[in-house]
Amino acid sequence: MNLNQLQYVLQVAKNKSFSLAAEDLFISQSTLSQQIMNLENELGTKLFVRTTRDVRITDAGRAFVQEAAEILRRTEGLRQSMSDYAGLLKGTLNIGAINALETIHFSQIITDFYSAFPQLTVNIVGNSSYPLLDALENRSLDIAFLTRPVKGSWPTLQFDSVGVDHYCLLVAKKHPLADRKTVALQELKEDRFILHQPTQAVSDICLAACEEAGFSPNIVCRNSAAPISANLVRAGLGVGFFTMEESEGFLGPDLARLTLKKPIRKEIVMVTPRTHEPSRLVGVFIDFVMHWLAAQDGD
Predict the structure, then answer these.
(1) Cα 269 to Cα 2: distance, rounded to the nearest angstrom
(2) What is the pLDDT of residues 140-172, one digit of tens each?
(3) Residues near 290 by beta carbon (within 8 Å), at least 6 away in sequence
(4) What pLDDT, in 10s, does the model give residues 21-34?
(5) What is the pTM of this model?
(6) Three-state secondary structure readout of the chain
(7) Where do the domains of the chain lie, and which CATH numbers do they carry?
(8) In this structure, is the dihedral angle defined by the CA atoms of residues 34, 36, 39 and 45, taken in order, positive or negative?
């Protein structure tokens, strides 16, 4: 699905004719028909009913037109907003980030933002959630992407949800439950656990899940680097919590992934200081991220 296809659907719905829509779009009727057919195949539903006499929009088509019009409106608003700033913004944007952020396509967000404002410098500081929160309070960072903590209070900071990931368990292939696809967390209460560092908000999240499951985990190792933890699990030291995103890169003949019957949720938030007005650069970046994510949700 792409923006051109959205525009094509809106034009056909407006004209109630493929031939007239093709004329208005300055493309051939065959190209227009093929593009909409490709879109319908992708969606798995018909948007239009074609007869020899007319073109009628389906119920699914009407719903699609409403959403597509909103996406195109937001896209145009983003384009106009960015054009207002083009060539005017300069400086360095200091962004804090935890390791696992690709569930929100963090790398693509940064790349697209830089493409829009190539005169800027983006400084990305990697760390755990709690140190990043401290850095925001100390104003050594402009903005940060991290896991929403379940403990503590930060009244001077603004938290905006931007995505969600879920935790699974990785176990060695020789583990008794390795052939299971789904498990209850309490089934592993006798296992040794490799857990995140206390500076990582996910440590509190996983500990809370264990407590809710009725046990206190036997933590034999704490580690902040997911690749090292995966190797320790592979070697048989214990079992470990990993996001679904992280686990994809570690699966192999020596590791098995267990999905939890009761999901452990990791909420990713964009955090900014409340105590002062954001700079123009930070404000533009926040708007860019929100529009970018909204466009992805529309797709």
Answers:
(1) 27
(2) 899 999 999 988 788 889 999 999 989 999 999
(3) 160
(4) 888 888 888 888 99
(5) 0.65
(6) CCHHHHHHHHHHHHHCCHHHHHHHHCCCHHHHHHHHHHHHHHHCCCCEEECCCCEEECHHHHHHHHHHHHHHHHHHHHHHHHHHHCCCCCEEEEEEECCCCHHHCHHHHHHHHHHHCCCEEEEEEECCHHHHHHHHHCCCCCEEEEECCCCCCCCCEEEEEEEEEEEEEEEECCCCCCCCCEECHHHHCCCEEEECCCCCHHHHHHHHHHHHCCCCCEEEEECCCHHHHHHHHHHCCCEEEEEHHHHCCCCECCEEEEEECCCEEEEEEEEEECCCCCCHHHHHHHHHHHHHHHHHHHC
(7) 3-85 (1.10.10.10), 91-163+267-298 (3.40.190.10), 166-264 (3.40.190.10)
(8) negative
Enter the tokens of residue 2.
């792409």
